[in-house]
Amino acid sequence: MAAAESYLRRALEALFDLGRHILAKGFGEAVIEYKGIGQGLVRRGVLSEKEGELFRTLAGYRNRMVHFYQEVSEPELYEVCSRRLGDIEAMLKTFLRWVEAHPEKVDHSL
User: Is 2-105 a CATH 1.20.120.580 domain?
Assistant: First the structure.
């Protein structure tokens, strides 16, 4: 369970970092809160309203895993890891499509 929780949290945080970088590098917008990233991405047209809601749900789950970890049960974690990883993959694909469609918004100097 510890390994599943750790890797799921890392995957979610990597997704949030991607969203934060899109806002920062593409639009000059700094966002601190994970849930605020989703709002900014919707406002900038990177995510649809539906995708933004999913992003906020994922952010809320990550926060729950970190701050209320005692409430995350083994069956719940198993359910997320076995049936909901597609949500993370779909969000990643959305980001990649946006980056490909807007190369002028991407900093290639790194």
Answer: yes
